TrEMBL record:
Keywords of the record: Oxidoreductase
CDD domains, per the entry: Tetrahydromethanopterin_reductase
Full protein name: LLM class flavin-dependent oxidoreductase
Source organism: Rathayibacter rubneri
An MF annotation (GO) of this entry: oxidoreductase activity, acting on paired donors, with incorporation or reduction of molecular oxygen
Keyword Oxidoreductase: yes
Length: 266
């Protein structure tokens, strides 16, 4: 984020996301405060649960992810405001600390969350939500019901474009191989083909087989994919559904070529 901010003058850079379990609240506040002080008004910060299997692999997945996230938001927001902060929570402890140079413009804090309870918490404590891929119109609508009407929503999607829609689907499929795992259930539940989707994953030998056998029409719903015009149409649909920002995650063996192709969508 710092490199992009330093190399540009106007764009807003969003950080999505900082795992709450992996970072002390004071260090998160200091780092965000430094960026916000150097680049006022140009930083948005996402703080979230993180990937459960990554956090478990580090042995830092909490017994109560919701409690940790709420305590982290409370402490980081207090520190960024310049207030002397004392907290003695279940997970977050701060002994009367204050940032020496709090930022004049406090960056918005968005919650990186997925499921209903986490989204409801985000609606209470955060300035918006960062939704991981895939964000379909159906999942976006369900998420906004739990979030409420206020707050910025950032929607991530795996993406590939080509003048040949079939070629674009071929490129995007590897980026979808994880979405059949249990953590992605909130994304899949609202879809009209959710039952068939789960049945396919259950009978697939592995993730590679699963993603290979996804019907084209499902791929079109689960990614921003196809020709540049069809990709623009999907982005417009997500904006109309309440996404303030749509993040495209390039998929394919050549990242530079994928970015060049995605630039055609703009």
């Amino acid at each position: 984020a710092a490199a992009v901010l330093a190399a540009t003058e106007r764009i807003v850079v969003g950080i999505g996301i900082l795992p709450a379990a992996a970072r002390a609240a004071a260090f998160t506040a200091m780092e965000l405060g430094t960026l916000a002080e150097l680049f006022p008004g140009r930083v948005h910060a996402g703080i979230g649960h993180g990937m459960p299997h990554w956090m478990r692999g580090l042995r830092i997945w909490p017994a109560s992810p919701l409690t940790l996230l709420e305590e982290q938001f409370d402490a980081v927001r207090s520190l960024l405001s310049g207030a002397e902060t004392a907290r003695d929570g279940r997970y977050v402890a701060v002994d009367s600390l204050r940032l020496e140079t709090p930022p004049a413009v406090v960056p918005p804090l968005l919650a990186g969350v997925r499921g209903p309870r986490s989204l409801e918490l985000a609606g209470r404590i955060a300035d918006g939500a960062v939704l991981a891929e895939p964000v379909t119109p159906e999942y976006l609508a369900a998420a906004r019901e739990h979030l409420g009407t206020s707050g910025r929503v950032v929607a991530y999607n795996v993406a590939a474009v080509d003048d040949d829609a079939s070629a674009a689907r071929h490129l995007v499929r590897p980026g979808l191989e994880w979405i059949g795992e249990p953590e992605w259930a909130p994304h899949i539940d609202p879809l009209p083909f959710a039952a068939e989707f789960r049945a396919l994953r259950e009978r697939s030998a592995d993730r590679a087989a699963f993603v290979r056998d996804l019907p084209d029409e499902w791929v079109d719903q689960l990614a921003v994919v196809g020709t540049p015009s069809s990709a623009r149409a999907r982005i417009a649909e997500l904006h109309a559904g309440g996404a303030a920002s749509v993040v495209l995650m390039p998929s394919g063996p050549d990242a530079s070529a994928a970015l060049d192709q995605l630039a055609r969508v703009l």
